[in-house]
Amino acid sequence: MEHYFVLQFVVKVKVTNFHGQTLYGNLIPDNTVIENVKLVREDVEWYLIYNNYGYVDVTRRLDLSAEHYLLAEMMPENGKKFHDAASCKIEIV
Q1: pTM value?
Q2: In terms of DSSP bridges, do strands 46-50 and 69-76 run parallel, antiparallel, or are they unpaired?
Q3: Which of 8, 24, 26, 62 is the residue whose CA sits 20 to 30 A from 40?
Q4: End-to-end CA distance of the chain
Q5: DSSP string spanning 4-16?
Q6: Residue closest to 60 by CA, chosen among 34, 86, 80
């Protein structure tokens, strides 16, 4: 009999825009991505996504589309605002 083990690690992501504002989140494990797509939450404004052009990107909840693969829910540092996701630095921390 074969045994399979699934190791789940918490992978933290940090996004910093050119204003120095930061977002933090945890990558969503593969086995829960489908369920998370169904459960896009109203209280989360920013998402880390894999877009239809093959890039990892940050987008607002209102701009999500069926072509986006959700990677993480992103929350602003200490509840501060996060503006303009253009030219962001994305790090695994």
Answers
A1: 0.74
A2: antiparallel
A3: 8
A4: 38
A5: --------EEEEE
A6: 86
Query: Phi, psi at residue 83, to the nearest 5°?
Result: -120, 140
SS3 92: strand
Q: What is the pLDDT of residues 8-51, one digit of tens each?
A: 567 899 999 988 999 999 887 765 555 555 567 778 899 999 88
CA distance 85 to 14: 12
DSSP labels, 31-76: GGHHHHHHT--TT--EEEEE-TTS-EEEEEGGG--TT-EEEEEEEE
**Other CB atoms within 10 A of residue 61 CB:** 14
Return the C-alpha torsion angle 65, 56, 32, 14, nearest 10: -120
